[in-house]
Amino acid sequence: METPCALGWFLLCLLSVSECIDPKVIGIEGQNVTLPCKYNTIKQGVSAICWGRGAIPNSGCNKEIISSDGTKVTWRSSVRYHLFGVLKTGDVSLTILNVTVKDSGRYGCRVHVYGLWNDEKYHVNLKIEKAPVPTTSQANVIITQTMDNHTHCHVTTNSTEYSDTSTPLYN
């Protein structure tokens, strides 16, 4: 009978030192990105939430950027932050408009659950990469018409090409 007990203690110790890896979202400068956060409204009902920058503290959100009462956004620090999901179903994913490299970093989503120390906490790491630099090439347009009514046309185009020197998004 000592084996099941020892196995139980081993699993408990293993679980207590294991660490969940925060999901990572990669975006391109100038585009919009969405950081996922969802909770079960059937289990706990509609809940107030907040999003902040950095690690989630014991209460509230660190450097809070947006909050909701569970049905609508009640506060935001910038017009760039939105909750476009259906809040009443628990989709409180954060959308950041027109991201910049400065938006990179760790974000925390806190779902307020009734009772002490019951809140659900989710972290997401955001990495914003520089947009590819456009290069423009131009050619000349020359249209000539000869006396024998033959038209000679040299077509010129202005084209924009993007050269991507960044690393691939997925390894």
TrEMBL record:
UniProt cross-references to Pfam families, sorted A to Z: V-set (PF07686)
- Give the molecular function GO annotations: phosphatidylserine binding
Gene3D superfamilies tied to this protein: Immunoglobulins (2.60.40.10)
Does the record bear Nucleotide-binding in its keywords? no
- Major subcellular location class: membrane
Task: Give GO cellular component annotations, separated by semicolons.
Answer: membrane
Annotated compartments:
Membrane
Q: Which residues form the signal peptide?
A: 1-20
Q: Which GO terms describe its biological process?
A: apoptotic cell clearance; cytoskeletal rearrangement involved in phagocytosis, engulfment
InterPro entries the record matches? Ig-like_dom, Ig-like_dom_sf, Ig-like_fold, Ig_sub, Ig_V-set
Q: Which UniProt keywords apply?
A: Disulfide bond, Glycoprotein, Immunoglobulin domain, Membrane, Signal, Transmembrane, Transmembrane helix
- Give residue ranges for domain Ig-like: 29-111
Membrane topology according to the record: Single-pass type I membrane protein
- What is the similarity comment for this entry? Belongs to the immunoglobulin superfamily. TIM family.
Q: What is this protein called?
A: Ig-like domain-containing protein
Kindly list the organism's lineage: Eukaryota, Metazoa, Chordata, Craniata, Vertebrata
